[in-house]
Amino acid sequence: MQMKGLKLGGGDKRKDRRKGDIAGSANGSRSFWLDNIVAGRFRAGFGMGLVMNNGFSLGKSSMISSGGRISTGLSPHSSTSDENYLQGAGVTFAYRPDKLKDRRTLSLSASLFGSSRYIDATITDSATISTILTSAYHRTRNEINKKNSAVQSTFGGDVSMSYRQFSAGVTAVYTHLNTPLTPNKNPNKTTGADSYRLYYAEGCNFFNASVHYAYKGYKLSFQGETAFAPKNQARSSANASGGVSVATINNLSYRPSYSFKALLLHRYYSYDYTALYAKSLATNSNIQDENGVMASISWQSKVGLTLNYYIDYSHFNHPKYLVSKASNALENSLQASWSHNALKLLLNCRLKNRQYDNADKSGLAWKNTLTLKLQSDYAFSPDYSARLTLQYNRYSKEETQSHGFMVLANGRLKPWRYLCIDIAASYFNTDDYNSVIYAYERALRYRTGYSQYYGKGMHCGLTLSSAATKWLSLGLKFSGTKYFDRSTIGSSMDTIDGSAQATISFEAAVKI
After folding, report:
1. Up-side HSE of residue 162: CA atoms within 13 Å toward CB?
2. How does pLDDT run across 166-203, given as a tens digit for each residue?
3. Which H helix or E strand runs over 152?
4. pTM for the whole thing?
């Protein structure tokens, strides 16, 4: 549940004008607002995500286009996924000009939220949590036994201000687990190296605080966030030490004209920084042990051509998954798009290089993944459009190489005002899982549309969506995959005794 924009009180600009208050007319009237209320399942995001961000992220490209901004505030949990949400209530108060475009006066906002919910976890024989689970699967007896195994309570808030081109804020979050978190931190049995979990979060109580700041000029802009966490959150009680660990991310952007923009971003995440709800720009999935620099440029011509390029380098001082020592990663991405009337063409080339342990665990070897994507969109009319996508993947590590490609066709039709039809058909062929291909297919609302394909086969999908009335919308999706290189699909309890699988999804949404 969400409610927005309840005005509690403020000045009357017309009254100021009648009295001839020149200062009041220049600054505009300001009001105190109960800006936002959420209750039930919700999400929160403040600053650049180093302390609080449990929303959905699409990766580095989307982060670059948004300049790394995460500040979404409090919002309802709109996904059908039964994970990664807060459960409770939150409120945002604001003191700002009545005209949002008027930035000549001081604006203030304060958000407070509280949450308490059951979480899935693996409980050890000593009655502690070894792993917090986020898959939300409850299919087998083993998975059912891990359901609602612990209680996670979270309280936090954010206070922000803006004045002219400047803005700043403070975020703080406290989390309590009713069962201690004790991840397995034993050394690697094969290499003897420290576990990549050595500095994972540990204990019952976790606290994080940060300062976020920004300057938005006409051509030059700067923004960042610096976060802090107690060092003993990442170490066992026997090795606990005082002090504070730091994580910081800052970027500088320069836009001399509408057609050109350059961005330089630096991030440093301490090896022992821990935050249960952190999500920001990073090569790894967690905000920890990373020192990286990214540079990007974007250029747009008057004839519809747009070029985007970024290069990102990361260094990791401690072991990672499948990496027993310090390592590096490098990523390059170039995207060109051109549009003219109803036609749009897109070419994307991405090369990822990262170090992993070699075959005999005696050193590191580079793993290289190249992705080439060519996409064409054509709109026959506002109600009829088509897309054709060609994608090629190449994987290499030491003496191993793997190749894969996919041809994907999509179409959208609106034959009737209240009905929309999406059709997809594809053929894929990869040598093995190393050259797996990720492709987007339109899904039902609040569901992710990305799927992975490897091996040899065909896939097709049909999605029907209808806004029957202003308060009711319906969705139905059929999808099927036929493999040519296997007689069974999946493994363990998910095994299908056949070379084809089908999925049917239905959704009904009621707006009150």
Report:
1. 18
2. 999 999 999 999 999 999 888 766 665 678 888 999 99
3. strand 150-163
4. 0.87
pLDDT confidence band for 16 (50 / 70 / 90) = very low
- In whole angstroms, give the CA distance from residue 317 to residue 196: 11
Residue 90's closest CA among 75, 101, 80, 100? 75
**Distance of alpha carbon 220 from its chain centroid, rounded?**
26
Say yes or no to pLDDT of 100 above 60.
no
Characterize the bridge pairing of strands 30-45 and 450-453. unpaired
In a 13 Å sphere around the CA of 337, the CA atoms on its Cβ side amount to: 14
Residue 327: its pLDDT value, please?
Answer: 96
Q: Radius of gyration of the chain from Cα atoms?
A: 26
Residue 443 pLDDT more than 80?
yes
Contact by Cβ (8 Å): 427, 456: no
Tokens describing residue 96: 């700002």
CB environment 466-479: b (16+ within 10 A), e (fewer): beeeeeebbbebeb
Give the type of residue at 501: Q
Residue 189 CB burial class (10 angstroms; 0-12, 13-18, ≥19): exposed
Per-residue confidence (pLDDT) for residue 136, from 0 to 100: 81
pLDDT of residue 369 exceeding 50, the answer is yes
- Whether the pLDDT of residue 12 is over 50: the answer is no
Query: What pLDDT does residue 287 have?
Result: 93
**SS3 call for 94:** strand
Cα distances (Å, whole numbers) of residue 27 to 14, 94, 101, 152: 13, 17, 12, 45
Cβ-contact 284, 292 below 8 angstroms: no
Residue type, 395: Y
List Cβ neighbours of 69 (8 Å cut-off, separation of 6 or more): 48, 223
For the chain, first and last CA: distance in Å? 10
Residue 403 has pLDDT above 80, yes or no: yes
Residue 5 has pLDDT above 70, yes or no: no
Helix (H) or strand (E) holding 160: strand 150-163
**β-pairing verdict for 290-300 and 400-416:** unpaired
Here the tokens at position 76 are 């309802």
* Distance separating alpha carbons of residues 433 and 430, to the nearest angstrom: 7
Which residues are paired to 332 by β-bridges? 311, 351
Segment 300-318 shows an average pLDDT of: 94
Determine the residue type at 39. A
Distance CA 94, CA 161 (A): 10
Query: How many other CB atoms are there within 10 angstroms of residue 272's CB atom?
Result: 24
Average of per-residue pLDDT values in the chain: 87
DSSP character string of 165-195: TEEEEEEEEEEEEEEEE----PPPTTT-PPP
